[in-house]
Amino acid sequence: xFKIEPIKQERKAQKRKTNVAAFLGIPYxxxxxxxxxxxxxxxxxxxxxxxxxxxxxxxxxxxxxxxFKEPIFLKTLxxxxxxxxxxxxxxxxxxxxxxxVIARRTPKVQALLILLVTAPMWxxxxxxxxAWKQIFDMIDTNLLGTDLAIVVGMVYVYLPFMVLPIYTxxxxxxxxxxxxxxDLGANNVKTFLKVTLPLSVGxxxxxxxxxxxxxxxxIVIPKILGNGKYLIGSLIEDRFLKxxxxxxxxxxxxxxxxxxxxxxFITKRADKNKEVEKFEDY
Amino acid sequence: xxxxxxxxxxxxxxxxEQTTLIKLINVTKAFGDQVVLKGIDxxxxxxxxxxxxxxxxxGKTTTLRIIGGFEIPSGGKVLLNERDILEIPAHKRPFNTxxxxxxxxxxxxxxxxxxxGLRIKKDKTDKRSKAEKxxxxxxxxxxxxxMVGLVGFERRSVNKLSGGQQQRVAxxxxxxxxxxxxLLDEPLAALDxxxxxxxxxxxxxxxxxxxxxxxxxxxxxxxxxxxxxxIVVMNEGEIQQVGNPEDIYNEPINTFVAKFIGESNxxxxxxxxxxxxxxxDKDYECVDYGFKRNEIIDxxxxxxxxxxxxxxxxxxxxxxxxxxxxxxxYEIDVVAKERIYTIHTTDYQPEGKEVSxxxxxxxxxxxxxx
Amino acid sequence: MKTIxxxxxxxxxxxxxxxxxxxxxxxxxxxxxxxxxxxxxxxxSLKWYLELFRSQEIINAVxxxxxxxxxxxxxxxxxxxxxxxxxxxxxxxxxxxxxxxNNIPIVNPEIVTAxxxxxxxxxxxxxxxxxxxxxxxIAFCVPxxxxxxxxxxxxLDPSLQEAAQDLGATxxxxxxxxILPQIKVAVFAAAAISFTMSFDDFVISxxxxxxxxxxxxxxxxxxxxxxxxxxxxxxxxxxxxTAVVIANFIRTNKQVKGD
Lengths: 282, 370, 259
Hints:
Chain A is an all-alpha fold. Chain A has helices at residues 4-47, 62-69, 71-103, 107-118, 125-139, 147-171, 175-183, 188-217, 220-225, 232-242, 246-281; strands at residues 49-52, 56-59. Chain A has one domain: MetI-like fold.
């Protein structure tokens, strides 16, 4: 009979513990549901419904169909992805060697160099893009509006995002591994190919993810450096703010998101083998 | 200081027929202002287990790294079979290293770690078919995994292995390349005592069976005594003594070596004449000679060489001051008139007892003053 | 042979750094230009800085940017920190669901988050302005706060809170005295991240601010021809940021030396 009492008390104490915790989380749960989850639901909703006579909503795939039918929109999508891929390649081609060279310096020099490379990130992106506009104006005004200008602008803005993760990964490689590799007969080139490169793949994938996605969806750079050239981001902006056509804009956004999710998925698959432990940490 | 009197230079004592494999001639090394090696002369023979022994900072690891090619000496020569190898980079020298922290490649499993050196070599001009080469690699990997007792571990991730297992992978990875010399940098330091002792035995076996020269670095004198054919005692960038374990232990050349290896009672005394030494106003017969008349010298008495007997029946009288049980023996301090003697004995003696210390003349080791 | 390697390496780094800083240098230089031109430098003048302080538009934008950033930072940091503590206490399934949901604004392209919020505000007939901009900033800052603080909370010794309560503290006191001090560093880092993200934000503000303008929106919507006033504004911002970055660098170096 008297065994019931202690259990009750324990349960009460447990409840008190979790109560405080749950209490703390309430503001966040509100924000999560209202400001984060619901908007996503709304996008999906608007992309597949059409207001009829201002009265009710009708389910439709029209917007999606419209998008795929109009060649100009598909071209815009293709352009955006194409330019984003080029940007990613360039930032990788410049960023990887940069990260590698920096990682091999003494710690003090490393810190300084990384600071110098990433400091511009803290400056407002618009300011930096406008600066490039001014420079292009100085060199040759006709450069503005070209794909080159857009790519240069994107590389400029996104380079630190590629350098940082690669640098972090390479600098964490145990220096003793380089000695071990040399000890086992590998020269510098072989050591790079067989030790450094495989161990830095995680950083490369991180960097690619952090560059490819924003580059594909930016609206600032094409407007300022591309003379208002239309990329997919601008398209969405236009449909939403100028044409007030939410349905259409939402549909485009969904298409974009799906493509991006696909790219992220492919990236994660490639990374899966090495990063399993990391995920468990979280 | 130790160069003029070449006592105990057993470089050629035991086996005059042994071929010299590696020679270090007056090797010096400085890091900026700090001089780490002050002039190392050393000969290492084929099939020898050589241990570089000394406290932290004595230069033993630096010496090893110079041989391996990971450090370039500030001066002096390093010869392999009479050929200067200083110009040859590390990855081209016929040596392999077992690192203290193992340095296993985290992105490769056990099999690929061990096969790494072979795969590197594989890329050179070899006209055999891919399958043939792969089969040879497989055969070798399994042979060496078997040698270190890790068959079945091929596909394991190296990050999940225990310290001892990682150590053995490191050893297999190095040995599979069949180097002339294996360099080992305190490889057992991170293992617990029992495992360390097992591995010491295994390493010695491998060295004997493989017929490779081992150059082993450690600060643990017991380890050195257990495994080595030749011990090189170093301190502050200089070689103090070179010899086989018995010589180093029984005939330490100076106080440093005497203190570093084994326990000792070190006493300052006078060499009155050949075979006659004196301390604390008493003369003793001994077996050392060749010193100047009445030269001031150091005497070493090993605690395990001393015995405790009844008052009056020994050479030095005293009173038992402390008794500590050490498992293998008791460590007993006996206070005599001039000093305290430390004795290792299996017989228990109560504190305060009046006793006498005795020893044989062979137990007195005379060394020049350091 | 080694020196050739050395030279080429440093040349490479030098070129990249040049690429990074020439635009910034050009900005700063032309902010002191006498003429209106952004392509040809005539003579030294501070007049654009005066223009800057006379421009009501710009001053408004700056004030808005700061107000929103400060408010958003404070609110997001508090909510996010509490949320991290709350999430850590949940069972694994719920925890992972929450964390995945939390990732949505981080993983989504900014423009998608932006239009989502726009649709939300429009649907509930909320007039777009300062308030909606603030809400939007909180919405994208909180996930980053959690991203920064949660791992730290996770890594805490679980017996800490028990120890505190064992010594007589109520759960609330345990929170204040045992947990919060431990995660202080992560919380400050989160606040710094939030502030920067809010201060620099463009896309989300653009869609949710209605007619309210912050610095980024002002720069984007500049119709009347660009003039060096922008350079002046930029230069001031760059100077402030540089000062902060250097101060932080010195501080972290001092800490390392202190160890």
